[in-house]
Amino acid sequence: MRSAGTWARRKKSRFHAGEKAAQCAMKGAGRNALTDSGGAEGVPRKSGERRRAAANAPSTAARPKAGKSRADTPAPDRKNDGTAAARKLRTARQLLRLRDSGRTFYGALDLGTNNCRLLLATPSEEGYRVVDAFSRIVRLGEGVSRTGRLSEAAQKRTIAALRICANKLRWWRVHRARLIATQACRAAENGPAFLERVSRELGLDLEIVDAETEARLAASGACPLIEEHAGNVLVFDIGGGSTELLWLNIVGESRQIADWTSIPVGVVTLAERYGGQRIPRETYEAMRAHIRPSLKEFASRLREKGVPIVPDHLLGTSGTVTTISGVSLGLRRYDRSRVDGYWLEREEVLRVSEQLRRMDIRARAANGCIGPERADLVVAGCAILEEITAIWPAGRIRVADRGLREGILTDLMMEDGTYGRPEKT
């Protein structure tokens, strides 16, 4: 008869073997896996980025404070540790079953001036289901507005993030993917050389897309949030190195692009020019004045085409508009489920923008919807957004925490005839 001790040892051995498998699966798939589902709604939550940062940070609780011995440090809660390990094991088994289920997986990577983002999905009845996601601020375009080149430090930061993306694409055995680079690589003299380096070192083949493609993809990803009875909408995407605007006329199920523009001014370029820490009112007004002529030129073009002066509503896909929404809602931590699809009043944009402008950079960094990595950029985004709302004074803005990657996934699945058609496994 097997003794209780033998049974316990074997159970412990099986648990540790399973935990090792969990670690391998979680390393390949990442902590964002299986966190979101749905059609174009499925994107990683920004709060997840902060949880990952906290998880990777050195734990102060694990180190005794000065003047205390290790004996004074509370023992770890082994019961809770076991529960956490069991959860990891369950998640890992889910990931492995899903990956090996025979489903087709698609990937979309957006490498911008400020962020590197990846989204992986499989077709579902709602359009597609997100199975994994990754987002990291890399500031690839840092300094490009001054030097015209991508710095070595920025390239190294970006390659480190792209290496994680490459691992995820391989682990999920992605069937089709589109990997795009936008304004930073378009503007930098050594942008193409950098992408050749990425190809050599990581085996990822990124394409530099033109501004029109960028605008179209952003609009495609956000279109599900257009109000049902709207006849026209101005879609905007305030990026790190550029701002895209696109006017859509809507007739029934048809959405026609009346005109579009891409302005080579974004939150990074504007903050580099005017500063991002202490921002007096005169500096803020100078930021607005900097982008005003380009916006007015586009407004003039639209009037010549006979479109209304004011759209039925604005539709914003940028980090700026999602951040302002999170602050407006009073969220202690960014929550995509509360922000995506939110209606933001124009008066609230003005109020929150002024609130953020008055804050010092430490106060902005401490806000759970902004964080230290965006603290020096968010006010520049507010200035661009305020100027957009001044020239097209629609009463409301629909907020979209989605954009290029969702547009890419939709395009790929539509081309394959798999969008909205879940596979039987």
Can you tell me about this structure?
With 425 residues, the protein is α/β, with parallel strands linked by helices. The chain has a domain at 214-405: Nucleotidyltransferase, domain 5 (2-Layer Sandwich). 48% of the residues lie in helices and 17% in strands. A 6-stranded mixed β-sheet has the order 8-7-6-9-11-10, sandwiched between helices. Strands 3-2-1-4-5 form a 5-stranded mixed β-sheet, sandwiched between helices. Helix 11 (319-328) packs across helix 15. The radius of gyration is 23 Å and the shape is globular. Mean pLDDT is 85; it is low at 1-22 and 35-74.
Question: How do the strands and helices of this protein lay out in sequence?
Answer:
Layout: H1 4-29, H2 46-56, H3 78-99, E1 106-111, E2 115-124, E3 127-137, H4 144-147, H5 152-171, E4 176-181, H6 183-187, H7 191-202, E5 207-208, H8 211-222, E6 232-238, E7 243-251, E8 254-263, H9 267-274, H10 281-304, E9 313-316, H11 319-328, H12 336-339, E10 343-345, H13 346-358, H14 361-366, H15 378-391, E11 396-399, H16 404-416
Parallel strand pairs: 1-4, 4-5, 6-9, 9-11
Antiparallel strand pairs: 1-2, 2-3, 6-7, 7-8, 10-11
Tally of helical runs: 16
The CATH superfamily of the domain at 214-405 turns out to be Exopolyphosphatase. Domain 2
Gross morphology: globular
Task: Tell me the strand order in the biggest sheet.
Answer: 8-7-6-9-11-10
Evaluate the radius of gyration: 23 Å
Number of strands: 11
Q: What multimeric state do the chains show?
A: single chain
